Amino acid sequence: MSKTLTIVMPVYNEEESLKLFLPKVIDHCITNSYSLILVDDGSKDKTSEILNMQAANISILTVITHKVNKGYGGAIKSGIEECDTDYVITIDADGQHYLSDVDNLFAKILETDADLVIGSRKGQLSASAFRKVGKGIIRFVAKMLMKLSVYDINSGMKIYDTKLVKKYLKLTPDTMSFSDIITLTFVSNRHLVIEEPIQIKKRIGGVSTIGIRTAFETVMEIINIIILFNPARIFLPISAFFFVFGVFWGANFFFQGKGISIGASTLILTGLIIFLLGLIAEQLSALRKNQ
C-alpha cells in the first residue's frame, strides 16, 4: 500500500507571496496526490480571502483559520492535528522553498524509514546576521545538552511520521521555537532523525516576522531546552562549583582554627540547594516527557 503525504503551510499576512506561490503548491499537490492544509494564523491582510476562495474549488485543500494569531508553532500544530496521512511535511508560505524538495524529502523518508527528515540549509547564506547568530547559539546549547547529529534543527521544511509528531505536539511551544523543540524531542526520544540538503531562495513578498522579539523567544527556547531535556547537566556543574569553592574557602579558615566562615557556609549551602533543585527538575523533565 502506497504511503500518503500532507503538506502543512502556516500563513500569516502573506497576501503578496500567496498570489504567486499558492497556485504552484496546489498544482504540485494535485499532480502528486498530496493533501494540502493551509493555516491562516489570524492574518490582517487579504490572506484569508485568497485561501477561502481557493478552498471552495479544490477538494485536496483544507483551510484552517485562527481568529487571533497563535504563533508559528501554534499554526503548525493546528495543521498537523488535522492530518490523516502517513506523513506530514511543513513548508513556509513565503515562497522560499522549492517544491521539488518536497518530493525529495518524501522519497528520503520512504527510503530510509526515518521518523523525521530535516531539510538542511547548511552552507547556504542566512537571511540576516541576526538570525545567523541566534541559530548558532541555539545549536551550541542543544549540542551542549545532548548528543546531536543534525545541523539545521530549526529548518522550516521537515517531514515527519504523522503518528509520532502528533504524540509530541503537546511538548512544543506555539512560538518560532517550535521547529527546534520538535527536532530535539525526536532526538531525545531516540527516533531516527536525518538530514537531506535543500535549496532556498529569497521570499516572494511580504515581511519577515523575525525581529527583536525573536531574541527573547530564543532565550525562552534555551530555557525550555534545558528544563525539558537535560536539566541535570546544567544544575549539577553549577552545584559542584559552589560546593567545591565553598569547601576550599572554608578549609583555609578551618585549618587556621577559625572555624567555618559565613561565606563558605553560604557557598556550600547554595551548592546543596542547586543540587536539590536539579534533582527536582530532572524528575519533572522525566514526567513531562513520559506524559
Summarize the structure.
It contains 10 helices and 7 strands.
Describe the structure.
- With 291 residues, the chain is of the alpha/beta class.
- The protein has 10 helices and 7 strands.
- The longest helix is centred in the C-terminal third of the chain and has 28 residues, at 262-289.
- It starts with a strand and ends with a helix.
Q: In DSSP terms, counting alpha (H) and pi (I) runs of 4 or more, how many helices?
A: 10
The secondary-structure element order is EHEHEHEHEHEHHEHHH
Shape summary: elongated
Largest sheet: 7 strands, mixed
Q: State the helicity in percent bands.
A: 40-55%
Q: How much strand?
A: 5-15%
* Mean of all residue-level pLDDT scores: 82
This entry's quaternary arrangement is single chain
Radius of gyration computed on alpha carbons: 23 Å
Which strand order spans the largest sheet, edge to edge or round the barrel?
3-2-1-4-6-5-7
Structural class: alpha/beta
What's the N-to-C terminus distance?
Answer: 32 Å
How many runs of DSSP E, i.e. beta strands? 7
Low-confidence stretches: none
